[in-house]
What we know:
By secondary structure, the chain is α/β, with parallel strands linked by helices. It has 2 domains: 2-236 and 401-405, Alpha-Beta Complex (Lambda Exonuclease, Chain A); 241-271 and 278-308. Helix content is 42%, strand content 12%. The chain has 14 helices and 8 strands. The strands form 2 sheets. The protein has a 5-stranded mixed sheet with strand order 4-5-6-7-8. β5 (135-144) and β6 form a beta hairpin. The longest helix has 30 residues, at 279-308. The two termini are 36 Å apart.
Amino acid sequence: xxxxxxxxxxxxxxxxxxxxxxxxxxxxxxxxxxxxxxxxxxxxxxxxxxxxxxxxxxxxxxxxxxxxxxxxxxxxxxxxxxxxxxxxxxxxxxxxxxxxxxxxxxxxxxxxxxxxxxxxxxxxxxxxxxxxxxxxxxxxxxxxxxxxxxxxxxxxxxxxxxxxxxxxxxxxxxxxxxxxxxxxxxxxxxxxxxxxxxxxxxxxxxxxxxxxxxxxxxxxxxxxxxxxxxxxxxxxxxxxxxxxxxxxxxxxxxxxxxxxxxxxxxxxxxxxxxxxxxxxxxxxxxxxxxxxxxxxxxxxxxxxxxxxxxxxxxxxxxxxxxxxxxxxxxxxxxxxxxxxxxxxxxxxxxxxxxxxxxxxxxxxxxxxxxxxxxxxxxxxxxxxxxxxxxxxxxxxxxxxxxxxxxxxxx
Length: 410
């Protein structure tokens, strides 16, 4: 079993900017949580993303262009408290990121992977001192100093939330930090790209092209004011969709108050046959319900961790989820099947791969030309959703050798 080390992050970092820029009070709340109320451990989804980023970084640094599904799918990785064994969807996803970098790097002269960038340059220039060091680590940076072009590529392993690229604060943070490292005067155009193989309801690769001046304006008008707001001792706590990934959600007074207000409103006013007919009132109640659910999920997760740590909670205990039957030793199972001379139709099932899986496998093994897929198979593919879910409306609508492009920044 391979162990994966999780990197340290700034309390005012890029990956959590969506939260602290919207809720400046969360910065102080997280830093002042008492030791007896630790944040919950990372979820399996966070751990899986950490593994994906580590494998991509290793491949780029070792100048590897193809992931071997057989090797990865047969290995279990330890990430925090989780044991993760990659499946084909996981392997195809990280291969998409690697393919994009390999295919794009010839346009540039330099490829950097997992580069630590710092935003101190911008704050010194503005005469502002942030309350903590502000740094982040980019997934990939593609640089062409001669043409004055820079591209930041960020990999998203998740499938539950669509990550828009337009004015994405995380990628703009990376862009600002990379510019500071390279000298912004040498660049004119910046491209930010999100690679999200399992993106719900959108293309898996999407980009936005910006002028360097756009990034500088974002630093002055958005980043620095947001950091200054977080530095205030009375910075407000603002519940919202960003609470979902807040490590202090289980101990947030604003979320608790919102949950109490929702419960009180339900007891005082709710009648099953008198649901709101006014769309504006329904929208307001949906926001209240969302905040209450975030807090409820956070407090339940926290309680589970407390009980696992042998802390007794009156009236509550842990019990196993419904068990499912699985083979304890697949090699031994196969041996017994062979001895019994059972045929494969009894022990195995053959299932047609999805369009994405099949196209990736055909391209990886170079079994057919691209034109064959476009002409013969693409017309047989349809986009199908199994249902609907309630979400906040969005306002946005051949392997190349890249050995010579990888080097360290001076």
